[in-house]
Amino acid sequence: MNILLLNGPNLNLLGDREPEIYGATTLADIEHALARRAAEQGAELTAFQTNHEGDAIERIHAARGAMDAIIINPAAWTHTSVALLDALNAFGGPVVEVHLSNVHQREAFRHHSYVSKRADGVIAGLGAFGYAAALDFIIQHLGEARFP
Ligand code: CA2
Q: Which residues pair with 47 in a beta bridge?
């Protein structure tokens, strides 16, 4: 089972700025912990972060037929990108959307997500644990004929 972890713009700064909102854990810490957690359950995790929307779209295209599921934190593109939604719509497997912060407690513009139109599940406000929850859910439910 191959799972793509895709993180969007500015998430490379995790642990460096705004720890009161996004926590003190770095993205590298999250990626390593998630890869280990996947391996312990017999799955393989590929991590990719980009600040360029076109690169994220290309990575989703490349995941078609190659990856079984996508865990995505689209960051600011969550609220702006129909292009990202269209790319995810062309991916056949399960998609789980993760946000570190509880976007519904924040500014109104963060309350709407284009990606949620496609996501099978959405996790917000659990910090870095949200990625682990998404991973475990995918691994436990991916084999089922219907997802979830
Ligand atoms: O809560 C989340 O995970 C978000 O996807 C994070 C995005 C924000 O635009 C979404 O509304 C919610 C922002 C990511 C920026 O990450 C930073 C990390 C450290 C320092 C500065 C920005």
A: 5
Ligand 1 centroid distance, CA of 114 (Å): 16
Which among 11, 69, 5, 56 has a CA at the least distance from the CA of 32?
A: 5
Work out the average pLDDT over 43-57: 98
Share of the chain above pLDDT 70, in %: 96
| Model confidence pTM above 0.70 | yes
Look up 32 and say whether it is catalytic.
Answer: no
pLDDT tens digits for 4-39?
999 999 999 999 888 888 888 999 999 999 999 999
Among the atoms of ligand 1, which is closest to the Cα of residue 124? 1
**Residue 110: strand, helix, or coil:** helix
Q: Cβ(77) to ligand 1 under 6 A? A: no
Sorted by where each begins, the domain ranges of the chain are: 2-146
Closest CA to 131 of 23, 58, 59: 23
Q: Which CATH number fits domain 2-146: 3.10.450.700, 3.40.50.9100, 2.60.40.10, 3.90.1720.10?
A: 3.40.50.9100
